[in-house]
TrEMBL record:
Domain spans labelled AB hydrolase-1: 8-245
Species annotation: Plantibacter flavus
Superkingdom in the source lineage: Bacteria
Sorted UniProt keywords: Hydrolase
Protein name listed in UniProt: Pimeloyl-ACP methyl ester carboxylesterase
Length: 466
């Protein structure tokens, strides 16, 4: 059996459990390994020590750390799980948890990191349901009926009602009185990763009409999808659309990512890698934004820089790193080595001027492009260019360093060249260095493919066949 390409960790909403995940899992193909992360009080899980969102995040991360295989994974989270998912993503970004590989999020009518906009009357009604213990069947029926746009099929209705009745009264009350009104926005910040938000237009509190206002600042790359006629229980109501959203997001991730091999992901997640290094690698591994807009360069300059980067650092057709966009983002953040000739242009100015000069003579064919690059490197300048040939050569040295660095610091590139030195700086392990230093040897913690020749790209395979 072929291993799944990605794991989907699914966090059900309030009153739900693994039964809410099953309809979606049935619609996903073999590329996805689906694991339900029942939060404290859901299904058979025990209640958390307290009702804070942090305790729910802790519990979810414990499951993810245990079940993660080192490969890429996504979060799919519904309602209450949406707020917890934001906390998970922030913690993974920070690197202080032993997990790696989060590449995207699909949210279903999510509760935001800010207090959930639930009417007081609705909150009071739901609290009365657990005054005397577990939720009664009639009240569970009311909860399900109030949260769907149209009646569910009998089998799904029964599963949803049973899930609500199985919910811990303690966890139910804690969420309504504490978790739902907790504000974790400051600790979450902006989560710059691929995100799809689905919501029904018949959902009053967390529906399609309010989600952009609630989440646009949290997920700047979010795409919001309104499901006509749907209520709040989307995994029961619209499993096909949910599965399609997961699949489409994964396809976008693959198209704009260099995927880190699973063994390398396990090393990054291990105690050998410091939180600081893990955080940096987690951020670098995120897919590039296909809708990226340049911050320092013009659109035309960015496109030329992409073309130049393609000649300097060839990459496979699929899963390319957008080196030019990463250079532009680094320039916008004040990156660079801080050095330039006396009286020379700033990094931003030099890039804009250099690319404009290069564009005046940029040819169409790859062969001619390589010839022009060689002339610039040799100090011959650009025919008819406005910049002194030596000045252009020095700027182009910086450009070559920048695009190469952006490629090399990506964890997939570190795996490709066989460098795992990022995992030798931890202070809380018995011995963080290398024990085996001889040729053709490696320590038992190192990836098995270390030192092996990289797999040929599809283009190389085609050339070999020819």
């Amino acid at each position: 059996m072929t291993a799944a390409a990605s794991t989907v960790f699914f966090l059900p909403g309030l009153g739900l459990d693994a039964a809410a995940v099953a309809p979606v899992a049935r619609e996903l193909d073999a590329r996805f390994r689906v694991i339900t992360v029942e939060l404290p009080g859901q299904g058979d899980t025990a209640d958390a020590p307290d009702g804070s969102v942090e305790s729910q995040v802790d519990a979810a991360l414990a499951v993810i750390a245990e079940q993660a295989d080192g490969g890429p994974w996504m979060l799919c989270a519904h309602s209450m799980g949406g707020k917890v998912a934001a906390g998970i993503a922030a913690r993974v970004r920070g690197g202080d948890v032993p997990v790696f590989g989060l590449l995207g999020v699909v949210l279903l009518a999510p509760s935001p990191p800010t207090p959930e906009p639930m009417p007081d009357a609705k909150r009071h009604q739901m609290l009365t349901w657990v005054e005397d213990g577990p939720i009664a069947e009639a009240d569970a029926q009311t909860f399900v009926d109030d949260n769907v746009g149209a009646s569910l099929p009998a089998e799904l209705q029964a599963a949803a009602v049973a899930s609500v009745q199985a919910m811990s009264p303690v966890a139910w009350r804690r969420w309504l009185e504490q978790g739902s009104v907790e504000d974790i926005a400051s600790s979450v910040g902006a989560l710059d990763l691929p995100c799809t938000v689905l919501a029904g237009d018949q959902d009053d509190a967390l529906g399609a009409a309010v989600q952009p206002e609630l989440l646009s600042d949290v997920y700047p790359r979010a795409r919001f999808v309104s499901l006509a006629g749907a209520g709040h229980l989307l995994s029961f109501e619209r499993p096909v659309e949910v599965a399609r959203a997961i699949t489409e997001l994964w396809d976008e991730i693959v198209a704009h990512s260099a995927i880190v091999p699973a063994e390398w992901g396990l090393v990054i997640a291990s105690p050998r890698t410091t939180p600081r290094a893990r955080s940096a690698l987690a951020c670098r591994a995120l897919p590039d934004d296909p809708r990226y807009r340049p911050r320092v360069l013009s659109v035309e300059q960015l496109e030329l820089l992409r073309a130049v980067a393609d000649r300097l650092v060839p990459q496979p057709a699929g899963g390319r790193i957008d080196l030019a966009a990463r250079v532009d983002a680094d320039l916008a953040a004040g990156g660079g080595d801080g050095w330039r000739p006396v009286g020379g242009l700033t990094d931003d100015e030099a890039y804009r001027a250099g690319l404009d000069d290069l564009r005046t003579a940029w040819p169409d064919s790859a062969e001619d492009q390589d010839a022009l690059i060689g002339a610039v490197i040799d100090g011959q300048g650009v025919p008819g260019g406005a910049i002194d040939a030596d000045d252009l050569r020095r700027w182009f040295e910086d450009l070559r360093v920048d695009v190469t660095r952006e490629w090399l610091i990506h964890p997939a590139s570190l795996a490709r060249v066989g460098y795992d030195g990022f995992a030798t700086g931890a202070e809380d392990v018995d011995f963080a260095g290398y024990r085996e230093l001889g040729a053709d040897t490696r320590d038992d913690w190192e990836p098995a493919d270390l030192g092996a020749a990289p797999a040929p790209t599809p283009a190389q395979q085609q050339e070999d066949t020819a």
